[in-house]
Amino acid sequence: MSNITYHRATQGDIQTLVNNRILFALELSGDQDENLVQFLREQMTSYFSNATADHSCISFIAQCDGKVAGIGSVHFRQMPGNFKNPSGKWGYIMNMYTIPEFRRKGICKHILNLLVAEGRKYGVTAFELHATEAGEKVYIQEGFIQHKEPTLRKILTS
């Protein structure tokens, strides 16, 4: 296998981010209604276009021999500070996906470290993420810990 290269995503990479996020979502959730997939594709295109332009989200893409091997993103948000993170500057790591044939080659770890380094440049003082069971080990090895606060959600439907 040739060398894996990494680059920061630009507007020209939006569809690559969207396509791979859809692949990741389908891998996690199974087949979905095509109308929902299309709606998500449009929503994600809008999100990544705007967030890439205003730098509220930064993404990296790994490639091997011209093929996408993996992606990852960090979304920046400012919240009121607290005792654990007084600055209130957070980076939410998301969109971490490695194409199956490229897994176990350090791509996730490398992208994660690029995202954290980029976040530091933006003044981020804490990062968080949600991990799949398969990916959890990588994040723990890179210093992420399970926090005790539970995550609760309420999904609003029409």
Automatic annotation (TrEMBL):
InterPro entries xref list: Acyl_CoA_acyltransferase, GNAT_dom
Record's signal peptide: none
**Which part of the chain is the N-acetyltransferase domain?**
4-158
Output the SUPFAM superfamilies linked to this UniProt entry.
Acyl-CoA N-acyltransferases (Nat)
Which Gene3D superfamilies does this UniProt record tie to the protein?
3.40.630.30
- Which Gene Ontology molecular function entries are recorded, alphabetically? acyltransferase activity, transferring groups other than amino-acyl groups
Q: What is the protein's name according to its record?
A: GNAT family N-acetyltransferase
Native species: Candidatus Defluviibacterium haderslevense
Its organism's taxonomic lineage begins at: Bacteria, Pseudomonadati, Bacteroidota, Saprospiria, Saprospirales
